Description:
It is a single chain. This protein is α/β, with parallel strands linked by helices. The protein folds into two domains: 4-67 and 350-389, Urease, subunit C, domain 1, CATH 2.30.40.10; 68-343, Metal-dependent hydrolases (TIM Barrel). It is built from 14 helices and 15 strands. The strands form two sheets. The chain has an eight-stranded parallel beta sheet. Helix 7 (209-221) links the parallel strand 8 (197-202) and strand 9 (225-230). The radius of gyration is 21 Å and the shape is globular. The chain starts with a strand and ends with a strand. The model has no long low-confidence stretch (mean pLDDT 97). N-(iminomethyl)-L-glutamic acid is lined by residues 74, 98-99, 102, 201, 229, 232, 277, 303, 305-309.
Amino acid sequence: MSSSTVITNIAALVTNDPSLGDHSPLGLVRDAAVVIEGDRVVWTGESSKAPATDNRVDADGRAVLPGFVDSHSHLLFAGDRTEEFNARMSGRPYSAGGIRTTVAATRAASDAELEAGLTRYLAEALRQGTTTFETKSGYGLTTADESRALRVAARHTDEVTFLGAHIVAPELADDPAAYVDLVTSEMLDACAPHARWIDVFCEKGAFDGDQARAILTAGKAKGLHPRIHANQLSHGPGVQLAVELDAASADHCTHLTDADVDALAGSRTVATLLPGAEFSTRAQWPDARRLIDAGATVALSTDCNPGSSFTSSVPFCIALAVRDMGMTPDEAVWSATAGGAAALRRDDVGRLAPGAYADLTLLDAPSHVHLAYRPGVPLVAGVWRRGVRRV
Ligand code: NIG
Ligand code: FE
Protein backbone atom coordinates (compact mmCIF):
# COMPACT_ATOMS: atom_id res chain seq x y z
CA MET A 1 0.00 0.00 0.00
CA SER A 2 1.27 3.50 -0.75
CA SER A 3 2.16 5.75 2.15
CA SER A 4 -0.22 8.41 3.43
CA THR A 5 0.54 12.06 4.16
CA VAL A 6 -1.52 14.63 6.02
CA ILE A 7 -1.14 18.32 5.26
CA THR A 8 -2.41 19.88 8.44
CA ASN A 9 -2.80 23.26 10.12
CA ILE A 10 -4.33 24.78 6.96
CA ALA A 11 -6.00 28.12 7.84
CA ALA A 12 -8.30 28.03 4.80
CA LEU A 13 -8.80 25.02 2.54
CA VAL A 14 -10.63 25.46 -0.78
CA THR A 15 -12.16 22.07 -1.66
CA ASN A 16 -14.71 23.12 -4.34
CA ASP A 17 -16.97 20.55 -2.71
CA PRO A 18 -20.07 22.41 -1.49
CA SER A 19 -20.96 19.54 0.83
CA LEU A 20 -17.90 20.48 2.93
CA GLY A 21 -17.01 23.37 5.24
CA ASP A 22 -19.04 26.55 4.72
CA HIS A 23 -21.16 24.88 2.00
CA SER A 24 -20.35 27.68 -0.47
CA PRO A 25 -19.29 26.67 -4.00
CA LEU A 26 -15.70 26.77 -2.68
CA GLY A 27 -16.53 24.36 0.15
CA LEU A 28 -14.16 26.37 2.34
CA VAL A 29 -12.93 24.53 5.44
CA ARG A 30 -11.17 26.51 8.23
CA ASP A 31 -8.43 24.94 10.40
CA ALA A 32 -8.35 22.12 7.90
CA ALA A 33 -6.31 19.12 6.85
CA VAL A 34 -6.01 17.05 3.65
CA VAL A 35 -4.89 13.44 3.59
CA ILE A 36 -3.14 12.12 0.48
CA GLU A 37 -2.58 8.46 -0.31
CA GLY A 38 -0.73 7.56 -3.48
CA ASP A 39 -1.89 9.99 -6.16
CA ARG A 40 -5.32 10.69 -4.61
CA VAL A 41 -6.99 12.71 -1.90
CA VAL A 42 -8.53 10.29 0.60
CA TRP A 43 -9.79 12.66 3.30
CA THR A 44 -10.47 16.40 3.85
CA GLY A 45 -11.91 18.09 6.93
CA GLU A 46 -11.04 19.83 10.19
CA SER A 47 -7.45 19.34 11.37
CA SER A 48 -8.54 18.03 14.75
CA LYS A 49 -10.41 15.13 13.13
CA ALA A 50 -7.72 14.03 10.66
CA PRO A 51 -6.95 10.30 10.66
CA ALA A 52 -3.47 8.97 11.51
CA THR A 53 -1.00 8.94 8.59
CA ASP A 54 2.60 7.93 7.88
CA ASN A 55 3.82 11.47 7.15
CA ARG A 56 2.84 14.96 8.24
CA VAL A 57 3.35 18.36 6.59
CA ASP A 58 2.57 21.49 8.61
CA ALA A 59 0.93 24.21 6.48
CA ASP A 60 1.64 26.64 9.28
CA GLY A 61 -1.63 28.55 9.09
CA ARG A 62 -1.51 29.09 5.34
CA ALA A 63 -4.09 28.44 2.58
CA VAL A 64 -4.39 25.38 0.33
CA LEU A 65 -6.46 25.12 -2.83
CA PRO A 66 -6.75 22.69 -5.76
CA GLY A 67 -3.96 23.06 -8.31
CA PHE A 68 -5.03 25.38 -11.12
CA VAL A 69 -6.59 23.79 -14.19
CA ASP A 70 -5.38 25.85 -17.14
CA SER A 71 -7.76 24.71 -19.85
CA HIS A 72 -6.45 26.87 -22.74
CA SER A 73 -2.86 27.38 -23.87
CA HIS A 74 -0.81 27.36 -27.08
CA LEU A 75 2.61 26.12 -25.97
CA LEU A 76 3.87 24.33 -29.10
CA PHE A 77 5.66 27.19 -30.76
CA ALA A 78 9.06 28.61 -31.58
CA GLY A 79 10.26 32.13 -32.24
CA ASP A 80 9.75 35.45 -30.59
CA ARG A 81 7.22 38.26 -31.04
CA THR A 82 8.64 40.85 -28.69
CA GLU A 83 8.69 43.43 -31.48
CA GLU A 84 5.02 42.87 -32.28
CA PHE A 85 4.10 43.37 -28.61
CA ASN A 86 6.29 46.43 -28.40
CA ALA A 87 4.67 47.92 -31.52
CA ARG A 88 1.19 47.16 -30.19
CA MET A 89 1.95 48.86 -26.90
CA SER A 90 3.05 51.80 -29.01
CA GLY A 91 -0.35 52.00 -30.67
CA ARG A 92 -0.64 49.37 -33.40
CA PRO A 93 -3.79 47.17 -33.14
CA TYR A 94 -3.74 43.37 -32.63
CA SER A 95 -4.80 41.24 -35.59
CA ALA A 96 -4.79 37.51 -36.27
CA GLY A 97 -1.99 38.13 -38.83
CA GLY A 98 0.85 37.89 -36.30
CA ILE A 99 0.19 34.16 -36.02
CA ARG A 100 2.02 33.76 -39.36
CA THR A 101 5.29 34.90 -37.78
CA THR A 102 5.07 32.08 -35.24
CA VAL A 103 4.04 29.58 -37.91
CA ALA A 104 7.24 30.27 -39.87
CA ALA A 105 9.44 29.92 -36.78
CA THR A 106 7.64 26.79 -35.58
CA ARG A 107 7.98 25.03 -38.92
CA ALA A 108 11.71 25.74 -38.85
CA ALA A 109 12.19 24.37 -35.33
CA SER A 110 13.28 20.82 -34.51
CA ASP A 111 11.14 18.50 -32.39
CA ALA A 112 13.67 18.91 -29.59
CA GLU A 113 13.39 22.70 -29.73
CA LEU A 114 9.59 22.53 -29.61
CA GLU A 115 9.67 20.15 -26.67
CA ALA A 116 12.24 22.24 -24.82
CA GLY A 117 9.96 25.28 -25.10
CA LEU A 118 6.95 23.33 -23.92
CA THR A 119 8.87 21.88 -20.97
CA ARG A 120 10.09 25.32 -19.97
CA TYR A 121 6.62 26.90 -19.96
CA LEU A 122 5.16 23.93 -18.10
CA ALA A 123 7.79 24.25 -15.38
CA GLU A 124 6.99 27.96 -15.19
CA ALA A 125 3.26 27.21 -14.86
CA LEU A 126 3.85 24.52 -12.22
CA ARG A 127 5.82 26.98 -10.09
CA GLN A 128 2.74 29.21 -10.23
CA GLY A 129 0.39 26.47 -9.09
CA THR A 130 -0.88 24.90 -12.34
CA THR A 131 -1.21 21.13 -12.12
CA THR A 132 -3.44 20.40 -15.16
CA PHE A 133 -3.08 22.06 -18.51
CA GLU A 134 -4.50 21.82 -21.97
CA THR A 135 -2.39 22.78 -24.95
CA LYS A 136 -2.92 23.11 -28.69
CA SER A 137 -1.25 22.77 -32.04
CA GLY A 138 -1.97 25.56 -34.51
CA TYR A 139 1.42 26.97 -35.44
CA GLY A 140 2.31 24.24 -37.94
CA LEU A 141 -0.61 24.28 -40.38
CA THR A 142 0.70 21.39 -42.48
CA THR A 143 -0.14 17.76 -41.83
CA ALA A 144 3.41 16.98 -40.75
CA ASP A 145 3.85 20.06 -38.57
CA GLU A 146 0.48 19.80 -36.83
CA SER A 147 0.81 16.11 -36.10
CA ARG A 148 4.33 16.38 -34.71
CA ALA A 149 3.26 19.23 -32.39
CA LEU A 150 0.47 17.01 -31.05
CA ARG A 151 2.83 14.08 -30.59
CA VAL A 152 5.17 16.27 -28.55
CA ALA A 153 2.26 17.66 -26.50
CA ALA A 154 0.84 14.20 -25.79
CA ARG A 155 4.09 13.25 -24.03
CA HIS A 156 3.24 15.90 -21.38
CA THR A 157 -0.55 16.04 -21.01
CA ASP A 158 -3.76 14.14 -21.78
CA GLU A 159 -5.48 17.40 -22.71
CA VAL A 160 -4.23 17.88 -26.25
CA THR A 161 -6.14 19.92 -28.83
CA PHE A 162 -5.85 19.86 -32.61
CA LEU A 163 -6.05 23.47 -33.85
CA GLY A 164 -5.13 23.01 -37.50
CA ALA A 165 -7.83 25.65 -38.09
CA HIS A 166 -5.97 28.45 -36.33
CA ILE A 167 -5.58 30.48 -39.54
CA VAL A 168 -5.52 29.43 -43.20
CA ALA A 169 -2.00 28.19 -43.94
CA PRO A 170 -0.06 31.00 -45.69
CA GLU A 171 0.57 28.91 -48.85
CA LEU A 172 -3.21 28.45 -49.27
CA ALA A 173 -4.18 32.01 -48.32
CA ASP A 174 -5.87 32.46 -51.72
CA ASP A 175 -7.82 29.23 -51.42
CA PRO A 176 -9.32 28.88 -47.94
CA ALA A 177 -11.71 26.16 -49.12
CA ALA A 178 -8.73 23.99 -50.08
CA TYR A 179 -7.26 24.50 -46.61
CA VAL A 180 -10.55 23.52 -44.93
CA ASP A 181 -10.53 20.39 -47.12
CA LEU A 182 -7.00 19.57 -45.97
CA VAL A 183 -7.82 20.14 -42.29
CA THR A 184 -10.91 17.94 -42.47
CA SER A 185 -9.25 15.07 -44.36
CA GLU A 186 -5.56 14.19 -44.42
CA MET A 187 -4.52 16.49 -41.57
CA LEU A 188 -7.35 15.35 -39.31
CA ASP A 189 -6.55 11.69 -40.01
CA ALA A 190 -2.92 12.24 -39.01
CA CYS A 191 -3.76 14.34 -35.93
CA ALA A 192 -6.80 12.65 -34.40
CA PRO A 193 -4.82 9.76 -32.82
CA HIS A 194 -2.74 12.23 -30.78
CA ALA A 195 -5.51 14.57 -29.53
CA ARG A 196 -8.62 14.59 -27.36
CA TRP A 197 -10.07 17.88 -28.61
CA ILE A 198 -10.57 19.84 -31.83
CA ASP A 199 -10.63 23.64 -31.88
CA VAL A 200 -11.23 26.36 -34.50
CA PHE A 201 -10.41 30.06 -34.38
CA CYS A 202 -13.84 31.31 -35.47
CA GLU A 203 -13.20 34.96 -36.29
CA LYS A 204 -12.96 37.45 -39.15
CA GLY A 205 -9.57 36.82 -40.77
CA ALA A 206 -9.58 33.19 -39.61
CA PHE A 207 -12.61 30.85 -40.12
CA ASP A 208 -16.29 31.75 -40.50
CA GLY A 209 -19.21 29.90 -38.91
CA ASP A 210 -19.79 27.51 -41.81
CA GLN A 211 -16.12 26.59 -42.08
CA ALA A 212 -15.91 26.14 -38.32
CA ARG A 213 -18.99 23.88 -38.31
CA ALA A 214 -17.52 21.73 -41.10
CA ILE A 215 -14.19 21.37 -39.29
CA LEU A 216 -15.64 20.62 -35.86
CA THR A 217 -18.18 18.18 -37.27
CA ALA A 218 -15.43 16.32 -39.14
CA GLY A 219 -13.42 16.19 -35.91
CA LYS A 220 -16.38 14.81 -34.00
CA ALA A 221 -16.74 12.05 -36.56
CA LYS A 222 -13.12 11.08 -35.78
CA GLY A 223 -13.78 10.97 -32.05
CA LEU A 224 -12.46 14.44 -31.12
CA HIS A 225 -14.60 16.68 -28.96
CA PRO A 226 -15.06 20.35 -29.90
CA ARG A 227 -13.94 23.54 -28.16
CA ILE A 228 -13.96 26.89 -29.97
CA HIS A 229 -12.12 30.22 -30.02
CA ALA A 230 -15.31 32.27 -30.11
CA ASN A 231 -16.23 35.96 -30.13
CA GLN A 232 -12.72 37.14 -29.23
CA LEU A 233 -12.18 40.13 -31.49
CA SER A 234 -15.77 40.78 -32.62
CA HIS A 235 -19.33 39.52 -32.47
CA GLY A 236 -19.72 36.34 -34.51
CA PRO A 237 -21.30 32.92 -34.72
CA GLY A 238 -18.74 31.09 -32.55
CA VAL A 239 -20.65 30.96 -29.27
CA GLN A 240 -23.90 29.80 -30.89
CA LEU A 241 -21.97 27.16 -32.79
CA ALA A 242 -20.27 25.99 -29.60
CA VAL A 243 -23.64 25.47 -27.95
CA GLU A 244 -25.11 23.84 -31.07
CA LEU A 245 -22.27 21.30 -31.15
CA ASP A 246 -22.17 20.77 -27.36
CA ALA A 247 -18.59 22.03 -27.28
CA ALA A 248 -16.96 21.64 -23.87
CA SER A 249 -16.01 25.29 -23.96
CA ALA A 250 -16.41 28.55 -25.87
CA ASP A 251 -13.17 30.41 -25.28
CA HIS A 252 -12.65 34.19 -25.05
CA CYS A 253 -16.37 35.26 -25.11
CA THR A 254 -15.37 38.92 -25.16
CA HIS A 255 -18.06 40.20 -27.55
CA LEU A 256 -21.40 38.64 -26.61
CA THR A 257 -25.02 39.46 -27.44
CA ASP A 258 -27.77 38.75 -24.91
CA ALA A 259 -28.69 35.73 -27.05
CA ASP A 260 -25.10 34.42 -26.75
CA VAL A 261 -25.18 34.79 -22.97
CA ASP A 262 -28.56 33.05 -22.78
CA ALA A 263 -27.36 30.22 -25.03
CA LEU A 264 -24.32 29.60 -22.80
CA ALA A 265 -26.43 29.79 -19.64
CA GLY A 266 -28.85 27.21 -21.03
CA SER A 267 -26.12 24.77 -22.03
CA ARG A 268 -23.26 22.80 -20.50
CA THR A 269 -20.75 24.66 -22.67
CA VAL A 270 -18.37 26.53 -20.35
CA ALA A 271 -17.47 30.17 -21.09
CA THR A 272 -13.67 30.25 -20.74
CA LEU A 273 -12.40 33.77 -20.19
CA LEU A 274 -8.79 34.61 -21.00
CA PRO A 275 -7.96 38.02 -19.53
CA GLY A 276 -4.26 37.74 -20.39
CA ALA A 277 -5.31 38.28 -24.01
CA GLU A 278 -7.25 41.46 -23.29
CA PHE A 279 -4.42 42.68 -21.09
CA SER A 280 -1.74 42.06 -23.72
CA THR A 281 -3.75 43.49 -26.60
CA ARG A 282 -5.30 46.38 -24.62
CA ALA A 283 -8.74 45.13 -25.60
CA GLN A 284 -12.13 45.36 -23.93
CA TRP A 285 -12.50 42.96 -20.96
CA PRO A 286 -14.96 40.08 -21.17
CA ASP A 287 -17.89 40.62 -18.79
CA ALA A 288 -17.70 37.74 -16.34
CA ARG A 289 -20.37 39.27 -14.10
CA ARG A 290 -22.93 39.21 -16.89
CA LEU A 291 -22.22 35.53 -17.64
CA ILE A 292 -22.28 34.42 -14.00
CA ASP A 293 -25.46 36.37 -13.23
CA ALA A 294 -27.15 34.72 -16.22
CA GLY A 295 -26.19 31.29 -14.89
CA ALA A 296 -23.34 30.35 -17.25
CA THR A 297 -20.37 28.32 -15.99
CA VAL A 298 -17.19 30.40 -16.27
CA ALA A 299 -13.60 29.16 -16.44
CA LEU A 300 -10.48 31.33 -16.25
CA SER A 301 -7.37 30.40 -18.16
CA THR A 302 -4.11 31.91 -19.42
CA ASP A 303 -4.30 31.43 -23.23
CA CYS A 304 -0.51 31.36 -22.93
CA ASN A 305 0.83 32.01 -26.45
CA PRO A 306 3.58 34.18 -27.93
CA GLY A 307 1.21 36.61 -29.65
CA SER A 308 -1.79 37.70 -27.66
CA SER A 309 -1.10 36.53 -24.09
CA PHE A 310 2.41 35.54 -23.16
CA THR A 311 1.68 34.69 -19.54
CA SER A 312 1.65 31.28 -17.88
CA SER A 313 0.37 32.77 -14.63
CA VAL A 314 -3.11 31.78 -13.48
CA PRO A 315 -2.75 33.98 -10.36
CA PHE A 316 -2.22 36.97 -12.66
CA CYS A 317 -5.43 36.08 -14.54
CA ILE A 318 -7.32 35.76 -11.25
CA ALA A 319 -6.19 39.23 -10.23
CA LEU A 320 -7.27 40.72 -13.58
CA ALA A 321 -10.64 38.97 -13.44
CA VAL A 322 -11.33 40.36 -9.99
CA ARG A 323 -10.11 43.86 -10.75
CA ASP A 324 -11.61 44.31 -14.20
CA MET A 325 -14.19 41.64 -15.03
CA GLY A 326 -16.56 41.89 -12.09
CA MET A 327 -15.64 38.59 -10.44
CA THR A 328 -15.38 38.15 -6.69
CA PRO A 329 -12.14 36.56 -5.46
CA ASP A 330 -14.10 33.40 -4.57
CA GLU A 331 -15.60 33.21 -8.08
CA ALA A 332 -12.24 33.76 -9.77
CA VAL A 333 -10.54 31.05 -7.71
CA TRP A 334 -13.42 28.65 -8.44
CA SER A 335 -13.23 29.43 -12.18
CA ALA A 336 -9.46 28.81 -12.28
CA THR A 337 -9.83 25.41 -10.61
CA ALA A 338 -13.28 23.77 -10.81
CA GLY A 339 -14.23 25.95 -13.81
CA GLY A 340 -11.17 24.80 -15.75
CA ALA A 341 -12.00 21.21 -14.88
CA ALA A 342 -15.56 21.71 -16.19
CA ALA A 343 -14.13 23.17 -19.41
CA LEU A 344 -12.18 19.93 -19.83
CA ARG A 345 -15.13 17.79 -18.70
CA ARG A 346 -13.06 16.42 -15.81
CA ASP A 347 -14.20 15.66 -12.28
CA ASP A 348 -10.93 14.17 -11.02
CA VAL A 349 -9.11 17.53 -10.90
CA GLY A 350 -10.10 21.03 -9.74
CA ARG A 351 -11.44 19.87 -6.38
CA LEU A 352 -10.03 18.42 -3.19
CA ALA A 353 -12.35 15.69 -2.02
CA PRO A 354 -11.91 11.94 -1.62
CA GLY A 355 -11.25 10.32 -4.99
CA ALA A 356 -9.83 13.40 -6.72
CA TYR A 357 -6.19 13.58 -7.76
CA ALA A 358 -3.93 14.96 -5.04
CA ASP A 359 -3.12 18.10 -7.05
CA LEU A 360 -2.84 21.00 -4.65
CA THR A 361 -1.26 24.36 -4.15
CA LEU A 362 -0.05 25.79 -0.84
CA LEU A 363 -0.01 29.58 -0.70
CA ASP A 364 2.30 31.73 1.36
CA ALA A 365 -0.83 33.52 2.56
CA PRO A 366 -3.65 32.82 5.03
CA SER A 367 -6.40 32.92 2.41
CA HIS A 368 -7.03 32.20 -1.28
CA VAL A 369 -8.29 35.81 -1.51
CA HIS A 370 -4.66 36.94 -1.44
CA LEU A 371 -4.34 35.73 -5.04
CA ALA A 372 -6.28 38.86 -6.02
CA TYR A 373 -5.41 41.02 -3.01
CA ARG A 374 -1.62 40.68 -3.61
CA PRO A 375 -1.32 40.83 -7.42
CA GLY A 376 2.03 40.04 -8.95
CA VAL A 377 3.43 38.53 -5.74
CA PRO A 378 4.85 34.99 -5.99
CA LEU A 379 2.53 33.46 -3.38
CA VAL A 380 2.85 29.80 -4.36
CA ALA A 381 4.85 28.10 -1.60
CA GLY A 382 4.24 24.46 -2.50
CA VAL A 383 2.70 22.35 -5.26
CA TRP A 384 1.73 18.67 -5.12
CA ARG A 385 0.85 16.93 -8.35
CA ARG A 386 -0.53 13.40 -8.32
CA GLY A 387 0.40 13.18 -4.65
CA VAL A 388 4.06 14.12 -5.14
CA ARG A 389 5.49 17.42 -3.98
CA ARG A 390 6.98 19.15 -7.05
CA VAL A 391 7.59 22.69 -5.76
O1 NIG B 1 -6.05 32.65 -28.41
N1 NIG B 1 -7.10 33.67 -31.01
C1 NIG B 1 -6.30 32.99 -31.62
N2 NIG B 1 -5.20 32.47 -31.13
C2 NIG B 1 -4.46 33.02 -30.05
C3 NIG B 1 -3.51 34.04 -30.52
C4 NIG B 1 -2.41 33.41 -31.19
C5 NIG B 1 -1.32 34.32 -31.65
O2 NIG B 1 -1.47 35.56 -31.76
O3 NIG B 1 -0.27 33.75 -31.91
C6 NIG B 1 -5.37 33.50 -28.96
O4 NIG B 1 -5.43 34.68 -28.60
FE1 FE C 1 -6.19 30.83 -27.69
